[in-house]
Structures are given as structure tokens and as C-alpha cells.
Design a protein that fits this description.
The structure holds 2 protein chains of 2 kinds.
Chain A lengths: L18 H27 L9 H13 L9 H33 L1 H16 L6 H8 L3 H26 L2 H9 L4 H38 L5 H9 L4 H29 L1 H6 L1
Helix pairs in contact in A: 2-10, 3-4, 3-6, 3-8, 3-9, 4-6, 5-6, 6-8, 8-9, 8-10, 9-10
Chain B lengths: L10 E10 L2 E11 L4 E5 L6 H9 L6 E6 L2 E2 L7 E4 L11 H12 L2 H6 L1 H14 L15 H13 L5 E5 L7 H18 L3 E4 L3 H7 L2 E6 L2 E2 L12 E7 L13 H15 L5 E2 L4 E2 L10 H4 L3
Parallel strand pairs in B: 3-8, 3-9, 6-7, 7-8, 10-12, 11-13
Antiparallel strand pairs in B: 1-2, 1-4, 4-5, 9-11
Helix pairs in contact in B: 2-4, 2-5, 4-5, 7-8
Classes of the chains: A mainly alpha, B alpha/beta.
The complex binds adenosine-5'-diphosphate and magnesium ion.
Chain lengths: ~280, ~300
Amino acid sequence: MMRKSPFLLGIHAEPPRLLRPVLGILPIVVLVAAYLVVSHVRLQENPRDKLTPSVSQMVSAVKMMAFTRDNRTGTYLMWADTLSSLRRIAIGLGSAALVGLFLGLHMGMLPGMGVTLLPAMTFLSTVPPLAILPVLFIIFGVGELGKVMLIFIGGLFVITRDIYYATRRIPREQIVKALTLGASQFELIFQVVLPQIMPRLLVVVRLSLGAAWLFLIASEAIASTDGLGYRIFLVRRYLSMDIIIPYVLWITLLGFLMDSALRFIVNRRYPWYAAAQ
Amino acid sequence: MREMPDTNSLLVLEDVYKAYGAKVVLDNIDLIVNGGELCTVVGPSGCGKSTLLRLVLGQETPTLGRILINHKAVGYPCPDRGVVYQRYSLFPHLSVIQNVVLGKRLSAGIFERISRRQEFLDEAMYFLEKVRLAEHVDKYPHELSGGMQQRVALAQSLIMKPGILLMDEPFGALDPGTREEMQVFLLELWEEFGMTIFFVTHDLEEAVFLGTRILVLSQFYSDDRGDACAQRGARIVADYPLARRASSTVVKEQAEFGELIQKIRHEGFDPGFRQHVRLFNLVHDDSFQTLTEEEHNME
Ligand SMILES: Nc1ncnc2c1ncn2[C@@H]1O[C@H](COP(=O)(O)OP(=O)(O)O)[C@@H](O)[C@H]1O
Ligand SMILES: [Mg+2]
């Protein structure tokens, strides 16, 4: 007799192929449905309730924020916010990646630099960046620089350490091999090791994105005049859930897209890296 | 056996000791290897074969003693000495042809690298044809089988024309069939290019089949230093010239071949048999031995 595995329950379950995506989307459908029901009931009781806006209320809020020119500033607020926030993340995390790559690579390859800097890097990467946000604001001001610096510092030490360890993981044999092929110290670092570290850099940047968004929104909430985080905390005063919810979904989508893009680049440009994992 | 080292030889090791902390791994190694030799090194696993190879390569320095290559003390690893490891010989981010041409590029100046680009690529192709990989030049190492990877590694080393090629269990991770193919193949290349090879393996059959000379490295020996059971660093306990027979695996079936293997297994791999340092079978013309006072304190 053929053995029959259960569909869903137990460790032997084999959910049918066709059912898998359906199952995967089910919890999301349930959540959305639950929200719609709650929102409907609450609005029936009190049409001026602001906590659980209906879909149409959110759509009109988005229309106002994204597709209507703001009277005061003359811009489309949601796009202006998005642009400011993305720019801060790109500059902050981008420069952290560049500096972190440079430091980590050299610490990994030059023992003198490694033993000198590693303890400091370990210490610094343990300092919670949000705790020194006030310090950053005092030193760099509450303008763009303060916010970018928070993202930069929040990413830098983590990236440096990760790149350092990635560099150290390159087998000693390979370094020796490169020397027997006539590599100079400079060539060894920049032509043999660096190209092997690049995909890891993209991976660690991808993993740092979550923290970068956290730092971005925190610093925008505290001191800013635009940005996605700024807007959410601004409209909170008016309990404008019809704006907050779409903004949160938008931020989530942006984060997801950045994550996917980086993953795509790693798999596409560095197939040998994916194969080694 | 010689009394004095002849420093005109390609590779000379004299009184070489290597210890990691308190653990002595290599004990008073004396060795001369001349050009053209395919010198194999066998010994029980963990006896220090790879350590010896790393010393010759310049990856590590001896605790005591000196190592000369072409009359000069060995320095850091450099193109004089090529190396093929069991793994990690290839650069994963480079295609097959890029891996082979890499040495040419790294050794050339920036302008030469551009002006002689095609020449370098042609030379790499020549060696890839030699190792019969011409149709795989654009693949990446992870797309190749283990045997193909090692052939790329050979081409990668050959293109540099090193004075001596060091190999550390290069076929150790291959299945028996591929392994045998690679052995025959290595002999062909060795003959064609007149290479000098220093080949480390724990596989006795492989060592006897490939070598023109076999060194047996072992910690199982005795001397006059007392405390007979103490852990000794490994020494070269036997050194035989091998007749270079036809490069065919048929010889592996012959009785003579099997007898030598049995003999070496007894001398080097049997913890119960500890030959005295003065009685080592150092038969090869190039072998020499300098014993310390305690070691040969005869009466
Ligand atoms: N870097 C090191 N530090 C400490 N001990 C080592 C080191 N490298 C090798 N050894 C020791 O030296 C001995 C010989 O190792 P190895 O040369 O790799 O042996 P083999 O290649 O013959 O199997 C082993 O006991 C090993 O533990
Ligand atoms: Mg070994």
C-alpha cells in the first residue's frame, strides 16, 4: 500500500505544491480581513473615529499626500518625504559601507592594523547608536549631517567587523597561493581579496538595512522638517491613522524592495558566492 | 648516503626543527633534493608532512636549522616555488582561464599587463590544452568536478614555471578512479616539462607509484636520548630511490611494488617498530644525516 503523508500536520506533512502559496498568503488575508471588520464596526458606531480608518479614507489621504501639491511647501509631500529619507539612508549607509570595507579589509590583511583596531571596533560596535544620538546632534547639529551620521555610525562598526571576519575567513592557502603567483601586497589586497569580499559587503549592507531604517526614523522623529519618519510622528498628534498606516506600508515596501534588489545583485553578479554558501 | 650537504642542490634542509609551543613536530630534518626529481613524502597522518611543505614554501619558518633554495635562504612565498593544495588552490571569483592567467598578470607591470594581454591569454590557453580543459575555460571553479579543479590548479602553477612545485595531498579528495587518472597525468606533465616536484601524501601506493625518490617521515623511531616512549618529532626514517618505470598503473600490480609498500609501511607506519636513528634506511644517493651527540652516543 502507498504511504500517505498528511497535508498539514506533523513532521511528515507534505503540503501540496499548489496549496503552498495559498497557505502562505492566508495569515495576511486573515489580518487584513480582521482589520476591515473591526474598522467597519467601529465606524458604524462612531463615524468620526480616527483609530481604524476605512480603506477609502486611507486612499483619499494618500491622494492628498502623494498626488496633491502641498499649499505651504509647493511639493508633493509623500514623494518629498520619500526622497529625503532615501537620500539619508543612501548617504549614511553607503559611506558606512565604503569606510567599513576599507577598514575591515585592511584590518584583516595587515596584522598590525588588525591588532591595533579590533578591540576598539569591538567596543564601539557594542555602543547602542541611539544612546549617542544626542551626542551626535550636539556635535553635528540637528540638520542633515546629524541624521546621516547616526546611520553612518550605526552601520560602520558592524560592517567593519563583518568585513574583517570575512577577510580572515579567506583560507591562508589562498593568500600563499597568490604570493607564489607573484602578487605584491597591494595586488593581494585589491586584486585577490577585495573582489572576493564584495558580495559579502552587499550581504552585510542588506542585513544592516533594518537598523538603518530604525536610526533614520528615530532621528527624523526627534529633529527634522521632512522625511517619512518625520511625517508619521507629525501626524500622530492629530491621530491621523489614515496617513500613518499607508506610510508604514510604504516604508515596508521600500525596505522590501531594497532588500530584494541587493539579494538580486549578489545572486546575479556573484554566482560563485551563492554557490559557496 | 652523504656525509656533508652539497649546497649546489636545488633544495637543502639542514638540522631543521619545527616546534609549536612545547610540541616538537619535525626533529632534525636533513634533506637534499636535486632538480628533476619527483620526490614524494609519505608518513602517518599528523606526522608533519604538511608542516615540512609549509617550511619549504616559506609559509612558516623553522624553529631551528636552515633551508636553502638555489643557495639562498627561503624567504616568504614567491614565484620560485609553486604550490598545489588539496583545496583552495583556485580563486572562486575567477573563471578557469582567469585563474590560469592570474600569475602572469600579477607578475607583470601595469603596462605589460595591457600590452601583452593576448600573449598571456594564449599562454594560458596552451596550458589549459595541456591539462585538457580547453572547452571549460569560461567556467568557474564551483562548476567543475574535483579532478578538473586540480587540473586547473596544475595549469595555474605550471604557467609560472616554478623551480620546484610543492604539492600537498593534491589528489587526496578525489575518488579512486579520478585519482589514478590524475597520477598518470601528473607523470606525463612532469616528464614533458622537466619539472621538480615535492609531493606530500599519506597514500603509500601513490607515493611509490609517482616518485623517483620516496622519503618516509615518521615519529616512530628510537635514539639514545632516553625516555624511549616520549613523543618524538618526526624524522626522515627512510629514503629510497625509485626506478622510474613506465608511467602506467600496471606496475601497481607487480610483486616488487607491493613488497616495497609493505616494507615502508613497516618502517614508517607501525608504532610498534621503532628503528634506531643510526640504522635508518637512507639509501638514496642524496640523503645525509647529521646526528647530535645524544642521538649517536654509540657505546
Ligand atoms: N599551526 C599549528 N599550531 C599547532 N600545532 C600544529 C600547527 N600546524 C600543525 N600542527 C601540529 O603538527 C602536527 C603535524 O601536522 P601536519 O604537518 O598537518 O601533519 P600531516 O600533514 O603529516 O598530516 C600535528 O600534530 C598538528 O596538530
Ligand atoms: Mg597534511
